[in-house]
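Many introductory courses stop at the sequence. We go one step further.
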Amino acid sequence: MGTRAVVVGGGIGGLAAAIGLHRAGWTVDVLERATEPDDAGAGISLAANGLRALDELGVGEAVRAASRGQYSGGTRTPGGGRLARMDGAALERAVGTPIMGVPRATLHRLLREALPAGAVRIGVRARSAEQAGPDAVRVDCGDTVLGADLVVAADGAGSRLRGRLFPDHPGPAYSGSTVLRGITDRPVDLRADFELTWGRGAEFGHIAFLDGRAEWHAVLTLPAGTRFPDPLGELRRRFAGWHEPIPALLAATRPDAVLHHDVRELRTPLPTYAVGRIALLGDAAHAMTPNLGQGACQALEDAVTLAAALADRPGVDAALAHYDAERRPRSQAVSRAARQAGRMGHQLANPLAVALRNTVMRVTPSRVATRMILRHHAWTPPPLRRADAAPPTHPGRAA
């Protein structure tokens, strides 16, 4: 079994993979091309499956302590009418935890702190990764070349490494939606921990944080590449007639704190998540729309599954084959479900279709909605055996 890994990408998935590999006894270098996280101003919701993955990585307790549970809220119309109510307590009873909201920058920091000093190399771009023999990979960083037994491609939806491994793959496609988001500069009086509001071709949502501030996002159905000279002013105009706390959230945000990204997804699934000694992970493997809040959670599932496979299987090749077999079907199914959720949510624009959807949502019991959520949240991670732990006992073998 190899002992040295290079993780390309210092986002949530890449950092989580590095933690898992480190706990399994590997020496890990994380290459992050940016000098700071590109989306540090955003927030994130972590469902039970993502939190369980973090528990297995040894950082779940710290993340929970920095997060706020989502017990109240739901989905509303622009006028404030209730479409569906969130029952965070029922979800907690079913899976052991509510969904938790945390600033993305805080999650990044906690993940980095779980790695050895110097493991994350900031400002380093991996140009390519190539097999240097049957058991080794070479990573070209321009000025330097790194040798490794394994490379984890966690370099995002626009993954350069994925493009080199699958030159005929069409790559990420524009989903039809663009998202603007930010974190308020001060606490806001909120009555809900988490809320979505669906209008025709638009969505507005917020996540409440422990300190009283909130992350908000606005999703608009627009042509790719659309940008506004004054993003915050544009949002204030578009959402001026929508219910509170939407105007209050925008009023509490600095103009320079607004981030704007087009939503891209891997609409064409990859045929494998492992090529030679290179494993694809997170958005590089299965970039999906955010409609189910599962993008980061699926990356965390990837990280734990990969590390556990490498800790338990007799060789890297066998471990990567197991990782692919475990992760590809589930993550691609979640990606399809997220795409469908978007079509029935903010992307719906026909007035009759919107009215029918709203009626169905109003009469659907909350327990039915909870069961639908559990399809994605009720995931149990494989046990990640630490390098200093005793090997597992196999049937027919002595302990």
